[in-house]
Amino acid sequence: MSYAIVGFGKIGQALAHAFARKNIDVTVASRRPPEALAPQARAIGPTVVAKSLQDALEADTIILAVPFGEHREVAKALPNWEGKTVIDAMNALVPLEELDGPSSAFAAKSFTGAKFVKGLNHLIAATLATDPVVEGGHRVVFLSSDDEDAIAPVADLAKQLGFAPVKLGKLNEGGALVHARGRTWGQLIFQDLFKKEQ
What we know:
This protein is of the alpha/beta class.
């Protein structure tokens, strides 16, 4: 399984730290050329490699950590997303009415053929960047998808990274609980919770 993080701001870098901590190879890409990201990627760890967006999208699993408004540009980079798993770590800071439902359900429409999972979005970057194993517990990450089969490999990745995945069901149900939007916030957004066992 190969992994890429698209977007190398605070959340993208926090996730890169999580991969580096476990020595898991991950490609990072953004709008900027790979050479602009390379020094920061190297500073995070040897398993974090900056590449072009096109090269990064060759990965099996792609984590979207771009500003919400840019997801369509990323989606256009491939004609078809068949065989890819896309993890939506974005938060849409726009009113829900503009999207006609949770942001993930809206964004998923752009990624034709992908297995689309909402996850890794509900914690602030500083928390996400720290070791998720604390005092015998594992920091919880919430996952939701309209494709039940898509959640299992993402849950496995979360466990490999040291998190405790909690499945919340479909995007319109569970996804709404971790949705940051306009003036309305999902009840689980920014909840820093731990589970004794993964």
